[in-house]
From TrEMBL:
Residues 12-200 form the Helicase ATP-binding domain. The keyword NAD does not apply. Pfam families: DEAD (PF00270), Helicase_C (PF00271), TUDOR (PF00567). It comes from the Eukaryota. GO terms for molecular function: ATP binding; hydrolase activity; nucleic acid binding; RNA helicase activity. Its EC number is 3.6.4.13. It catalyses: ATP + H2O = ADP + phosphate + H(+). Residues 228-391 form the Helicase C-terminal domain. It comes from Tinamus guttatus. CDD domains: Tudor_TDRD12_rpt2. InterPro entries: DEAD/DEAH_box_helicase_dom, Helicase_ATP-bd, Helicase_C-like, P-loop_NTPase, SNase_OB-fold_sf, Tudor. This is RNA helicase. Keywords: ATP-binding, Developmental protein, Differentiation, Helicase, Hydrolase, Meiosis, Nucleotide-binding, Repeat, RNA-mediated gene silencing, Spermatogenesis. One of its GO terms (biological process) is germ-line stem cell division.
Amino acid sequence: FLGPNFTESYCWPPIARGCDVLAISHQGNDPLLYIPPLLTFLQSESCYKSLPNRSGPLALIVCPGWKKAQLVFELLKIYSRFSRPLHPMLIIVGQKKEEARDIRIHRGCEVIVTTPYSLLRLFEHHSLLFLRLCHLIFDEIEVLFSEASEQVFTILDYYKKTITIEERLYSPHQIVAVGTCWNKHITELLKEFMNDPYIVITSMEEASIYGNVQQVVQLCLNSERIAVLLRILDLTPKHIEKTLIFTSTTSETEMVHQALRSNSVFSVEIHKEKEFSFEYALQHWSSGTRVVLVLTDDCMQSLGITDATCVIHFSFPSSPRIFGQRLQNMSDNFHNVIEKGSCVDQEHTKARSVLFLTENDACCALGVLRYLERAETEIPRELYDFTARVLEAEEEKKFARPLCTYLKTLGICKNRRVCADRHHINVQTDMPDKIIPTLGCVTVVPLHIINATNYFGRIIDKQKDQYAILAEEINDYFKKPSNKVSVEKVERLALYGLYEEALFHRVQVVEFSPKEEEKFFNVTIKYIDEGRISQVESHQLLQLPARFQCLPPQAVEFIVCSVKPIDNEIEWNPRVTSHIYHKIKGNPHEAKIVLTLGNTVWVEPMVRVTRLSNLKTSVNEYNVRSEILSMGLGTDNPEHIEQLQKL
């Protein structure tokens, strides 16, 4: 351990002293921003002597989902080994009331890691949960506010009521919120629930949102930028006196400077080839008159300006870091939103940022839109139209990508703007395979379980199961030792045989990277009749006769539709997946196909049917969807298929 990083060096001291802290940073999703200083404070047992003498947590860490909560809990266990015993607990509660009621907080448990929904369900049956609570930590605060703002404010209200009673007057009370970007609800968190908070924002573009910098986007053609710039300067209010115009090259700086001079706008040009002008520019800048500087990004640090009132991005910034550095030139005029009587109306702000967006910057349009949405600024209709066209163009580039997993399993992709996979129908790829029925009832055998609703397996032909016949022939063939011939030269996408768990399988080589000196090497293979992917050593692959390669791959992807995880989660809790895995793997089920795309089949219902031969009848053991719902960790998703059909 080399010591705290830049953000940690600012966050750790105030958190370790028990202060309220808000931290916004590019590393804001790292739990180590708060775990070490929190553990440090928890060592001071004397601070908690005034608390009621009963069990209950001293600290609650609220995470945006079960996956992040699991990570935080594991880190907490690692770093608390060298502290006094804290007995941390990870609590994820489903919608079954008896589950929350039956949870017992371990004696001596001083830290609980949970999610907002789980915490409120727990609180319904454990009303004294907040009685000893001193530290309330929010991990990834921007995600919590965007996904569960109502629940977060309910938790804050409970906490505020708890710490304001007379008995808690001399005990610690601390709120810590960390995240990667600003959210509109953070202002209320700072003003209504935090007491004289330390605000650490290491990302200058996010600091400008906190500082209420007026953000303006100017859409124009690249050839029209000079005309638009002159119009902006002509309309600049009188109180804006100090303007910086950023360009990307020396020649562009000179071009803008000449254009301004030709239109009677006095300006000073600064770039690395005119270093002698730095002193003159700074003298002119500090003169107090209306000043316009035209400069390149590499001059910012040398000038050290912090009191600009307007920054014009004539050239689009090359990165978010450069964008933030440009905005830093106005930092003296950033607004402090937590000052009493402060006004956050952007019309009254002293700092303004004008961003030129041309046809050459199309790839950045989505990022600009997301930023403006967080800044709650007025967004021109043209920008929405422009980004829609950009998004459509980006989707067309994903023509060869697989259909998005979240779109398939949930009917929606929350991260569509940044997701690498396809979100539209590709007629060639998504045409149903000839061997797969498009509608009707079928018998399916799940063999590879990805999660609670997504599996790979086979469709069984009740009349004549071709694969069962083939599998028997393959096993009979390889029983003869002389037929077990190892492959000498492995080829990508070729089919081979593989012996595993007393059975022989057909496998396809997906990827391998042999080194010259290695005789044996690892090979990534796909079991074409089961759907799973694995790694084996090259010498394990066996030559597969052509007659065993004729039958098409039998693995089909099944998705049980109209059910999704609770609490706006996009990943299934492992408890559900494990339960479904042990119930369905390898067992035949009756399923009704409602949609087929490519090699993927959506089914509802999917039922395990047991035939009672003595009574010449059958009974339904369970419905997979109902089984998921009964665990309290899944909920109805009625729009699932409807969303897919819209594609």
